[in-house]
Amino acid sequence: MDLDDVIPNPQYQICHSRVARAPLVAVWDALHRVTMSALPLGHALEGVRVLPARLSGKKLEPLAGRTFLDATPIPVLFSERPHVVISAGLSQAWRLLGGSIPPHLDAAALRAWSQPGWIKAGMEFRLEPVSAGTLLSTETRVLATDPKTRRAFAAYWFVIRAGSSAIRREVLTVVARRAESSLKAR
Question: How distant, in Å, are the alpha carbons of 53, 54, 55, 127 from that of 59?
Fold first, then answer.
C-alpha cells in the first residue's frame, strides 16, 4: 500500500528524505520510538496548533511523552515493518478548534469519501535499503472534498506549510541520528 491507494491526486503535497547510515530495522525502530519531547520544533508547533482547543477547555493528552506517529492528528492506517507506515484520515484542521470529530475509515472508504467540508490527509514514511544504509522518506498529501473547503484550507496551508516541512525534516534528522547512534552503542 502507498499514498496513491488513499489520496491519488492531492491538491497539496510535501516530500522530504534523508539517508540514515543504519539498517532498515534500526531506522524503523527509531521512527516508532521518537517522542514529541525529542522534537523541540515539532513539540512547540504542535503545542501552538492545539492551543486554541486547550484554551477553550478541551482536555487533550500531553504531547511530550507521546510518539510522533501517535501525536499526529491522523491515525496510522497501514504499517508493514520495516518498510512503510501510512497515517491517513479526515480532518478539519483549518478550523480553530479542530472541527468535527471525523469517522475512522479504511483506505478504500477514505479514498471514496466525498462529503463536503473535509480534507483527506495522508502521511507516509517509507524506508528503503541503499548502499549507504537506509533511505527514509516522508510524503504528506492533502485533498479537499469540495471547492469551499479547498479555499478555506488554502489559507491554513499557507500558514502551516513551512512549519509542517520543518517538522518532517526534524523527524528525519532525529530518527537518522538515533538509528546511527544505536549502532555505535553496540
Answer: 8, 7, 10, 35
